[in-house]
Structures
1.
Amino acid sequence: MASLVGSRVERKEDKKLLTGRGKYTADVTFAHQTYAYFVRSPHARAQLKNVDISKAEKASGVVAVLTGKDIANDKIGGLIAGWRIKSEDGSDMKVPAHPPLANESVNYVGDHVAVVIAESLDEARNAAELVKVDYKILKAVVKTDKAMDSESIYKDIPKNLCFDWLLGDRAKTQEAFDKADKIIKIDLINNRLIPNAMEPRAANADYNPSTEEITLYTTSQNPHLARIIISAFNGVAPENKLRVIAPDVGGGFGSKIYPYAEEVVCSWASKKIERPVKWVADRTESFLSDCHGRDHVTHAELAVKNDGTFLGFKNETIANLGAYASVFGTVTPTYLFGPCATGVYKMPAAYSNVKAVFTNTAPVDAYRGAGRPEATYTIETLVEKAARELGMDPAEIRMKNFPTEFPFQQTLVHSVDSGDYNAGLKKAMEVGDYKGFEARKKESESKGKLRGVGFCSYFEACGIAPSAVVMSLGCGIGLWESAEVRFNPTGNVTVFTGSHSHGQGHDTTFAQIAADRLGVPLENIEISHGDTDKGPFGYGTYGSRSLTVGGTAIVKACDKIVAKGKKVAAKMLEVNESDVEFKDGEFIVAKSNQKKTIGEVAFACYLPGTYGEVKSPLPEGEEPGLKETSFFDPGNFSFPAGSHICEVEVDPDTGNTEVVKYTAVDDFGTIINPLIVEGQVHGGLAQGIGQALYENCHYDDTGQLVTASYMDYTMPRADNFPEFNLGFTCTPATSNPLGTKGCGEAGAIAAPPAVMNAVMNAVGTEVSMPATAEKVWKACQKMNKSNSKAA
Amino acid sequence: MKTFNYHSTKDVKEATKLASSSSAFLAGGMTTLPSMKLGLASYKDIIDIKRIKKLSGIKVSSKTVTIGATTKHAEVAHSKEVKKAIPSLAALAEGIGDPQVRNRGTIGGSIANNDPSADYPSACIALNATIHTNNRKVSADKFFTGMFETSLKKGELIEAVEFQVPEKSCYKKYPNPASRYAIVGVYVAKHKGGVNVGVTGAKSCVYNDENISGALSKSFSSSALDNVKISSSGMNSDVHASADYRANMVKIFAKKAVEAC
């Protein structure tokens, strides 16, 4: 049987999703359904003096109006920060209380003040206009780099500083800098982004007063985590009385890893009114209240020798957490950022210092790549600047500093198990025809355009796991993954995974793995996820972890099935277990033509006896049934790496910048499904190029979100991209038996520096992200570049 | 969305009779409906005029192109007659919004709304358009009076827009990367009697840039604009483009338009 691993199997889930037969949270409506509409703060910072609900309560169709006082009276816990970070001085991070409905103050535009629940959405929305809120408006703290000099938003958090974190050795780094021939310095802004999943967030909670159970449908990347948080921290219902279902989910990009106020409020309110409560965000609410991404202000320095050898690296960053510390808000700018900031290089000494600040903006949390795009942007623009200042080729300076021996102990944390960075960069230069760049540049010039080329070599730590490691760094949860492989009596298979698919294609990839391992046809395998009542506990999907961690759990469970199957087959064939081999779905007696298929063995496990023609007594002591569970906690992260080369064309008269050629060569270890992996790379590149050229979340000085709709927030579109040139190299991961490394975040990590380095190469001076037409035009004016033909 | 009364009529007289101070005519609904959904606008009566036959269609003569008010952008974009008589007008229509908008949105709706960044108003200015309403004819330079404002009176209904066929013309725009409305759009048209330059996106209302049209009337070439100075005073400034950038782009896009004529 040909191996399915490595083949371009078309996505099994696409037919359903593309023909409108998916089932999303908004599609779920219960009998006796009610609808929730949230009253949100129009101010970035204000004291709540009074919330008058008397008129709203009497409005047509209104079932209940609930406020922060009600939620406090019911002792519902606040939203949590899931990762505890300590400051350089050893003190704990400082976080403000984050009640699901505000009680004393509101701290960003969109913050939750009250919820109106009515028989219809229109009635809820109309009644919400009747809730009279008396705000005492306070001066908002908005800008990341000004937060520490502004008035404290929370009285017990001086300078709005959550923590001042250090990784690495300042003294040792300074020694390295003292020996440098040259110090390259850079100041960067990593622009704030709004995730914009295609499906807005939604929740529908149904409390059954007879059983005291809540069923919560929600748009989650991680339903098990939602259940434990809503149970253990918010205290809405015990875990055994809370079932969380994340059905089809239309994209998350990190913004749906954890529960928000709305899920907590809908679950609590459903219990209170004893009716189901449904909330679906409109697009404006998504812009205002989904957690945002990035938002760093960084000063970084690289110490180099004249021959291009790197000696040391300093990274001083201010990270904006928004108004509250969100679940992964504190780990994103620390352990997901700092270690990777030395890039893919041998760096004898380094440190990353991050000051995380609160501002009156929406909370900031993980967004595709989470910390690693920020790290890669920092080091890769710095390295390119070093090449410029030393007069070296950008590829040459990189190769000079690549490690060549693996495992490679990276400067700050990671022990990278495998890789071949030179091979990746060489292949990227080949696939992208780097040699032909000068000719293409001349051709662009003949059309009055400036052409630039930019490199990015990256590595990242993903496959987010080793529980022991992440917990030692402050993580409040373990990060292993689970799988249950269940043979049905007729020989087909259902695989339950604790991870969750919201665009990644698990239904296909995971089925390929199980089909290969069990020798069962692909179409006989269903993947089930997203329901806490069905499969075992798991930790969901983010951090490019599902395949390396969750996929391995499936492999292990399949192996347990085969081990039991061998025993059963041996009994059926009346031979010793040691004489039975398993291959391509068949248990074969060595050197004979005697065999049983895995389907026959499964059937026997469910009919363990003799009945008519069925003769399948189980071995003594063997339990009936064929179902195995496995939990996998790897010993290390996985470390995908690669080199991307971007070419842009700039119209000097308008500043309009187009990506005209893009080459990505990635090492994702073993690839299970190239079609899906290429799709993941394309999507990541779209988001990465989006950050570099288009997307920008903009708050004005009073904390109003200016870019709160698609009229002003620039999403990249298909016509913004060329055909991408993709290539792959492969050094299998050693931390999981599949040899896989994560691929979901690579594009979003590598593209911003590749694009920005190309823009800077084209115009000859630094431009900040996003490189909008006006910024690039101004840079061209400064460098006196214009199209002589038109100007 | 607040509830409203929906009327659909086949007759202009009936439509105007139904109009009141709290009504709106509905053609493509590309602005009206989103505004209502977002709660930015609400009306007691919505008067659907799409079924009024005489409001739709394209008539071309040697001197004019007349487009009915409810004619969709896609119909103008794909009209062989328009492409032949004023190719730049068909190209402008092809560049409005996206396919969904072009298959719903209408020319009458666009100019009645007079969005400062809409494309059609610049064509009206450049092509000496006459706007035919149910009771009068208004020249384009008197029709567009301010941001989202026109000289239409309450209950007055646009029936058609009559464009003058120029000797040559071209429309070039720099679209807002988010909304794809014009950050700056410049419509240059050379007529026997002189040159018109309709500029949209740059200021609060479409206007004829007399500095540029003056220079081009003397010499219709992009180099004629080399020494023209465009002031940023009165130009729009927002997160996408400053007034200074817009002022510079008015000249750049005028040049691009002239070169492409």
2.
Amino acid sequence: MSVTTIPQHTPSPVQPASAESAKVVRVSGPIVTASGMYGAQMYEVVEVGDQGLIGEIVRLSGDLATIQVYENTNMLRPGAPVRRTAAPLSLQLGPGLIGNIYDGIQRSLPAMHQASGAWIERGAKVPPLDDRKPRTFQPAVTPGQPVMAGQVLGEVPETPLIRHRILVPPDVSGTLRTVASAGSYTLQDVIAVVDTPKGPRQLTMVQQWPVRVPRPIHGRRRIAEPLVTGQRIIDTLFPIGKGGAAAIPGGFGTGKTITQHQLAKWSNADLIVYVGCGERGNEMTDVLREFPEIEDPETGRPLIERTILIANTSNMPVAAREVSIYTGITLAEYYRDQGRHVAVFADSTSRWAEALRELAARLEEMPAEEGFPASLATRLAQFYERGGAVTTLGGQEGSITIVGAVSPPGGDFSEPVTQHTRRFIRCFWALDTDLANARHYPSVHWLRSYSEYVEDVRAWWELRSPQWTEVRQETIEILQREDRLQQIVKLVGPDVLPDSQRMILLTADILRDGFLTQSAFDEKDMYCHPDRQLALLRLIVTLHRRASQIIQAGAPLVRVRELPCVPKIIRAKQAFGNDELEALAALEDEMNQQFDDLEREYERD
Amino acid sequence: MIEFGVRDRGLQYVGTQRIDGPLLVVQRVRDVGFDEIVEVLDAEGKPRLGRVLDISDRQAVVQVLEGTTGLANQSTRVRFLGESFMLPVTPCMLGRVFDGLGRPMDGGPPPLSADRRDINGLAINPHARQYPREFIQTGLSAIDGMNALVRGQKLPIFSGNGLPHDRVAAQIVRQARLLDESVSFSIVFGAMGVKHDVAEYFIRNFQESGALGRVVVFLSLADAPSVERLLTPRVALTMAEHLAFDCHQHVLVLLTDMTNYCESLREVGTARGEIPGRKGYPGYLYSDLASLYERAGRIVHSQGSVTQMAILTMPADDISHPVPDLTGYITEGQIVLDRALHQRGIYPPIAGLPSLSRLMKDGVGKGYTRGDHPTLASQLFACYAYVKRVRSLVDVVGEEELSLLDKEYLRFGDLFERRFLHQEETENRSIETTLEIGWDVLSTLPRDELHRLSDELLDQYYRTKQE
């Protein structure tokens, strides 16, 4: 490609050292030291050995460079050649990213599968984008017009769900000399020429961007809209805004991955970037198998048409795991710049932090808490701050929501990754081992979780139903009181409690079974529309209010428990789908009728 | 030693600079690669195997796999063999017993094969994986009913010292089969640091069930040098991958005991002066374990599969100890053995709540086992969880103070453990039997309590109390 799009990273004037002079002097696992590297830049990409293993320079000292290699270094010898590329690790950004699955350094896994079979061979090189496939380009600008960085040059239909907007790269602005007319082009074709103060620049549909540098924006915006996830406990109790950041911590077996999958499936973001970072291979296969089959609830199109997957499983090289998080967020930024709402799911940030630790140990850095490098907090902050709701350079609204899973060792939330993550997120969905053991999923613990976005998204919810705040608050209070009562029950048993308090226990039970649990595998319940969430919650809260009144009037709890509507309410979430709100309304009438009857009985006394 | 067929590059380095635990430092080496396999000769010329852990243009750090006892700086000779550790693989190895590094232990000749594999293996491209979903019937209700195993899964057994994990594992190996096929598994058995009698127990078991012809055994017993154990699971898995993906067999890999493996890793890490992580284990324990456990699964367009069952003993029964903790984060669930159940005489003592199979959801239900299986299991879990709550209440207030309903739950809990979980070591239950027992047990609770089951299922299976 003749165009360099990032001036701040233009190759240094110093020419790369000649092939003979740069060579390996030491190999220790993924960390390789090379000599003859004077003039190399930090984070420059190098190719190591005869196989051309890809690595990145992480330390420079005189003539020596320490390189973190993204592939297995077995049988690499001192004396092997090292080739510099004079550019930092960069991604190719253009049409064809969506629906693809990449490893941590943007190598297309399907392409690798085709090229070299089921096993990932070392030194495999495949282009991230198919640059021979013709794409239909529709220009949105005319020659002679001034263009600015981030402006839309034209559109390419990438999938039936997403029209890919071709943008002027962030470092280019000037007058448009030519632009390609509507038609079919490959990614190598020049589609526009811009006269810049530094001379004419030829643009293709592809941009390059270094993964460790955030893409520029015009400014930040306030978060005002929730990311609707279709998961009741999240949307209703602990909502996240579009552009927010959340963490899902939980010990093993608490359902972090399932929860992440659920969110990736049902969130109303325009695009999902799912980063499988140091997790199981079969989980990525599961996503690959499922997403082409599941339909988006809004558009009815397969979910894969709005999904990009990054898979760096736990047995893939640890250095590539470290970078996979940045690869994911850079892809998200690129689509955000096109005015999209993107959600990034990182599973798991703990594995990423462990990769940092592993590499730091190999570099013989001084460890801080539990062996993690002292820069852990900074690195986490840098990652989470790449999210947010923004106005793009081109003046459009876009956002990146980040949801990071955290896997604390032993399920202990006081460990460094969980603790530092908490400082940079505003939404905390704590998964609980006891709930998970009882197969209460999602195992989000209602007392230990929180969301600071409630105020931000309140207006949106109140537009749907003015009662939202009130019903939600009452739910939280019931759950809190139940927790306190349970402590008494543990000491003396439930029988000593008065009926009014036992009613709270009953309502909390109904809330658990009828609202808080949500099956990821039940056709009707896996996605719960906000209106249905409200209807279900109102049903239970109304039941509680009326029952409490009646108990106050002297009715025993047993009478409430025996009402035929109670089991129906508990099963309502599975019995009635998103389009059966009338049935829920009918159930509410039925319930009110039963309470009316009961009321009359006790008024007579 | 020549049975490895490694070409001799001739160059021999005499004398080492330093010997420290299992590590040797050899100076002024040339043309040596990282992870290269090394032959270390002592004063009498007896060879031991080692591998390169760190290599620079000045020196090589060599880890001796067979102990450094008797080595002297002055007389030790070192030969670098020019490649990483390779295992010759052939299906003829079925029915044979090898040591932890793949050398015959049964008196037979070394396996003849031109096919030699790097024991580190390669990562399976996630795009090339086939999602595992074929139900394996183990004949144990606690597993089939509640934590079903599927072909290509990695499901470890978390146990403790003195618990019958070996008996449970042996029973699974004897009984495991697919529902619709009579094809049995080939078995690769890797023992790391276990006692002679444990290894002997397994081999006798294979023999008695007539399976020995389908088993490859790799033994690195408790008295073998501990570093050898670091290679044993890799050797076993390389064999398994060959049988599965080249010979199209279904392979069950049984590894015991992973805790010993991790101890060896810690030992080597400490000797190298690495910065320790939790409880002294190296910071890369997760990645290292993943490089073993992830070597399970299925591949598209391939007939075979690797199913992994690793046994690990939790030190002091602590599930949050780094070894079980990190294992649980990598494997697709875990079977946890419970000491209290064992003491009450329940076999297999598989703990109801902390056990989990992550792949169960896709391998059971309509078209796989039976339509009611997933929800029945979920309901059993929920009810059993409530039983646990009631039991802790009983400890405080006594059984008399309980409500009628809670008493029914107590009875259910007892029945669940005695009838559903408990079975004989020779009892091979079909999945139908398991589900029927599940319904029998569940039907002792009032129908209204079973919130997770739909009315249709309840109508079909719930036993009304007319008898």
